[in-house]
Amino acid sequence: MAFAEPAPVDQRGARLPTSTTRLVLGGLLSVMALLVVANEAYRTAEMAVASGILRVISSSGVYLSAERQSVYFGLGTDQPFGLRMSPECTSAFLVLPLVFVAAVMVALRPRITRRVLGALAVAAFAVIVVNQLRILGLVGLIDWLGTDRGYYWGHTLLGSVVSVVGGAVALILFVYLSTRKPKAQP
Prior knowledge:
The chain is mainly alpha-helical and about 190 residues long. The protein has one domain. The protein has 5 helices and 3 strands; from the N terminus they run ααβββααα. Helix 3 packs antiparallel against helix 4. The radius of gyration is 21 Å and the shape is elongated. The chain starts with 18 loop residues before the first helix and ends in a 7-residue tail after the last helix.
């Protein structure tokens, strides 16, 4: 039976990152870069999901303009409307800080890498779902209150509240899941 060598340590006795830790950190940094560099593609994917949901729940026509990151709904009614996913409205910029914090946590405490990555997956999924709910809420308010009032209330009030609350819940989930002690094995 061969024993694994102890992890290398620096002059202070702190463990140095292993090749696995460096690989995970490289992956997280790559995800961060992709969220910025490929933001247009990310926004297109978000609007594609929103248009798919709208096609299922709406009785009016829905059209996705992928090249403009836009979805048009209410087609065939007297109030058609289009929403464009601007860089400020994407969930990418709520996911980005979570990925950054995950990278810092992995760099500082490599032994919790699995928990951090699992927590990151859950929190990122929560942020993406919340952003889809925000878009659908905006569509619902436009349909209910009309273009001007519905867009104002849906974008200004509902959108902000949903984003803040959803972001806070995702952050709490991330911190809880990544820092809790593992259950003792029987």
